[in-house]
């Protein structure tokens, strides 16, 4: 039947239809050919790169690599910091992986971390430029991602000595206390019913940072906060664009680039407005005497108008990049630490009780927690350290090798991506007894601190690229945790048993809980 119809001469209409079909076929054919061509091109590019990597014979050991994807298949079943830890138990503390196009080494012990972050500190004092930081951070001109050199050195100096200094952190004490008190009032209004503590803590961290950075002059804060939170998501370094950096057409196809550009445009507009508002409002005391009441934009503006002694000054773009660093590096890290600490204590009611007793004894009938007495909370501070050991907010520190270098018997070629696995290091049985156990009193008698000199404990990193926001972060964490312990008793909703609380981690640049922590608060009255 089909056959006989096909044999009939085609009518004018069916002819044009055939022409259309043929044109479409031709179009489809061209598209397929083009896709095929690009596919071959992609394979050739990747094979060329992996061949050049194979030629480097003294790379550290690592699992067998598949064509094109390398070792990506080794990372799909669990969050990367877990998967990398499991692989390191087989291949050693310095291991080589091929992540798509990217040649990477994974550091999983304090000894190798010392080599990378201390002995060869300058060689590894860089981070690979990932697509998200290029777009969001003004061509990677922030502190975290700007290339190692004079610009980064000056920026870090300004931030360490002026922007994030202990004196500056103290000057924002009234903001922290006011906002934490607002949190207490919000929780108190929900006493007896579950509150989403995770949501409250993350929003508190952004609000405190925004007020410290923008002061009172800002009207665009409410628009800015959700955008800054969104900017955090693509910073893990495991985006398709970071794994296949040369396949730029793939970045466009995946939609990530467009999405990042959209967020960037919005953030940029808001930051311009806020900085201009500061310029218009002016601060008569800029650059003079005790300027502790300045907000962070005022502080940064000092370096626009008054050069440093080395003749260095900040452009508006530089300031915007630093401000973004504060939000991306400084908010979720603190909030997630408080969140994990609360979850760990809820699972162990005796520890929760002890920590509450300590806070309530130190602050007694004063009715609220005050920052100056926080160092007296020995148990709580040990709990914070233990939380940062077991759940480091930045589980994988991203670095890049600036020039070829030898670690032990292995060669690390220039541009190799380096991932320091803090999750592995913090749980290394060589340094930690019962490493998987949350031991609240582990740090009570310990002299280990956050300065990055004990490489088995580096939640804030180590060496030149170490976190400049330690004082800022700890001030947030200590005040929030003490306040939650002082004002409220806590229990799980729906009769859930403490030991059943889910502690699953999510995947991302920041190690967060997969599920939000919902708890029922009961108000504690100091007279009790
Ligand atoms: C619990 C809180 C925090 C933790 C655990 C943390 C952790 C880290 C880690 C592990 C690094 C990488 C260090 C390295 O490469 O050796 C880092 C870098 C950085 N952090 Fe933090 N951070 C915290 C809070 C903050 C805060 C509050 C700020 C700012 C207000 C901040 C700003 C930065 C910046 C700008 C960098 C990049 C430094 C550079 O590359 O030179 N961090 N942080």
From TrEMBL:
SUPFAM superfamilies: Cytochrome P450. Heme binds at residue 467. Keywords: Heme, Iron, Membrane, Metal-binding, Monooxygenase, Oxidoreductase, Transmembrane, Transmembrane helix. It comes from the Eukaryota. The chain crosses the membrane at residues 30-47. The keyword Transmembrane applies. Its cofactor is heme. GO terms for molecular function: heme binding; iron ion binding; monooxygenase activity; oxidoreductase activity, acting on paired donors, with incorporation or reduction of molecular oxygen. Belongs to the cytochrome P450 family. This is Cytochrome p450. It comes from Trapa natans.
